[in-house]
Amino acid sequence: MSAVVLRGRGRSIRVERRTLVLTGSLLVVILCLGLLGLCFGASWANPGEVVQALAGFGDSVVVVREWRLPRVLAGIIFGASLGVAGAIFQNITRNPMGSPDVIGLDAGAYTGALVALTVFGGTAGELALSSVLGGLVVAAVIYLLSVRGGLSGLRLVVIGIAVNAMVNALNSWIVLRADLEVAIAAVGWSAGSLNGIGWPKVALPFAIIAVLLVVMATRSHAMHQAALGDALAVTSGVGVGRLRLVMVLVGVGCTATVTAVAGPIVFIALAAPQIGRRLAKAPGVPLLPAALTGAVLLQGADLIAQMLLAPVSLPVGVVSAAIGGVYLIWLLTKEVRSA
User: Fold this and answer.
1) Which of 55, 56, 96, 319 has its CA 20 to 30 A from that of 333?
2) Interior CA angle at 144 toward 140 and 149, to 5°?
3) Is the pTM of the predicted complex or chain greater than 0.90?
C-alpha cells in the first residue's frame, strides 16, 4: 500500500496507508469490546442504557461509571502498556521471545510487590515503588550477565529465562515464609486479575503509564533507527546507549505499574507486538500496532474470563496464559523450523 504524509505545525510524518487502516480497525474493535464490557455484568445493560449512564442519566449510573468503566479502561490502558513494553524489549533483543514476562521482568516486579506485602504495609504507593525497583534490579542483573563479550539478543533472552526461573523460585520461597493471610492474598494476586478494579486503584497508574507512553512516543523514531543496526543509528545521530537506557526504564515502568495493580498478566507483552507487526506488515516491531493489539488482547481475555464461568469471574491471567501457551508453542515451532 502507498503512504500518506500528515502535516501540522511545520512538521510532517509519513505513515503507511495500511498502518492507518489497521489503526482505525483496531480502534473500532477496542470500542466494540469496551461497549460489550460496559453492558456485561451481574445484570445486562443494553447499549442505550450504557450511553445514558455515561452521560449521567438512568438507573445504571453507579454500576456503569463506578464499577464497569474503570475495569474496561484498565483493560485498554494496561493492555496497551504491556504491548508497548513487549515491543520495546523485542526491539532491544531483536528476538520475538524477548518480552518482559519471558525474561523475568514480570517476576522481578512481583518480587518487589511481595516484599512490599510481607515487609512493609503493602500500600498502593509501596506496591508501585517496590514493583518498579524489583523490575529494575532484575533488568540490571540480566543486562550485566548478558553484556559480556557484546550484547546479544539471543544471549539476553536465554539468560533472562534462567533468571526468570530463579526469581520465580525466590517468589515461591517468600510466599511460603509469609503469614497465611498474606500468602493467600499473594497467591491470588499472582494469577493476574482485573476483578475489583476501581477508580482509587487506577487513577495514579493511568497517569504514570500516560507519561511513560508519551516519553516512548517521542523516542519511537530513534528506536526504529536503532532497530536497523547500531552503526546506521549512530550515523543518523541516535545515541544508542542513552536510547536503550530510556527504553529499558519505560519498558520496566510499564510492566511494573501493571503488575503493581493487577498482578503479573502473562503473554500479552509476548504476543501483542508480533501480532501487531504481522498485521501491519512492518519490518520492525512498531509501537502503535503493538499497543492497540495489546489492548484488544487484554480486553478480549478479560471478557472471556468474566463470561466463561459466569457469574464467577476468573482471573484474566488464567485466560491470557491459556491463550498465550498456544501462541508460544506456535512461535517456538516456527523459530525451530527457521533456525
Assistant:
1) 319
2) 150
3) no
